[in-house]
Amino acid sequence: MDEQIHDEETSQGELNTSELTFTWIDPAPIGAGEQIVPAALSSADAHSFAALHLIAGDLQFALDCFKLANTFGTPDDRNLQSKALIFSGVVAYARCFKSGVRQSLSASNIGANTGTFDFEIHNYLVTLRDKHVAHSVNDFEDCQPVAIVVGRPESGWRDGSGVGVVIKQTVGISADLLRRAIVHIDNLHQWVTRDLETKRIAIYQTFRDDFKNTGRWEMAPLVKLSDRAKISRRRK
Predict the structure, then answer these.
(1) CB-CB contact of 200 with 49 (8 Å)
(2) pLDDT value at position 221?
(3) Interatomic CA distance for residues 226 and 7, integer angstroms
């Protein structure tokens, strides 16, 4: 059984959701007046377990974005909602495999463990993020400067007194690739969810044994506001 406790903070001018979520492993009766309190975990396995929750959230976000974008039909650069959803989904998916403070997924390791990992669509989505969505590199957008001339081929041309550009833009993914990405991300999200449950049991057993032997624990904070002044710094 999963339990969730939500809190929302608005003091920073935006909604910040703080959520305590957990699953009972070996539940026992809770007496009247007893409190349910989160105890901090500090092992490498525990931090890996926590990072996987953020990754699962990114995958679910990417999946939701792509599914909703698919309802608009053929991806269209002129459709603000379709383009925004696809670009958001691409970034959310790719960051699961990018280096950063948190643990990242390894496509090669997952492929070796599952045998169903779609490397072709994975590589496409990551490259789409790197070479188009996050950085203007490939041919999915282009803009060339032009001047205007007026006339006829048989009689000649004159200055048209105009300067502009020829713009080409595309979202960068076809409807077929979008649907393929939905299937791939759905399968990957299910794999991460199963891996989380396996890790949950092992982490609980370690905590249970240590708590039984030492009785020591430290309360984990439920609310931790972000500092916008530290936007460029790595979190600890």
Answers:
(1) yes
(2) 85
(3) 15
Q: Which of 215, 2, 196, 228 is nearest to 103 (CA)?
A: 196
C-alpha of 70 from chain center: 18
Average pLDDT estimate for 142-156: 97
The whole-angstrom separation of Cα 81 and Cα 71 is: 11
Lookup: tokens for 114: 């599952």
Mean pLDDT in residue range 157-162:
96
Tell me the pLDDT tens digit for each residue of 51-61: 999 999 999 99
Q: Which residues pair with 173 in a beta bridge?
A: none
Name the nearest CA neighbour of 191 among 100, 93, 113, 102: 113
- Of the candidates 87, 102, 89, the residue with the CA atom closest to the CA atom of residue 63: 89
Residue 147's beta-bridge partner residues? 163
Greater model confidence, 83 or 224 = 83
Q: Which tokens belong to 120?
A: 């072709």
Give me the sign of the Cα torsion angle 46, 50, 55, 59.
positive
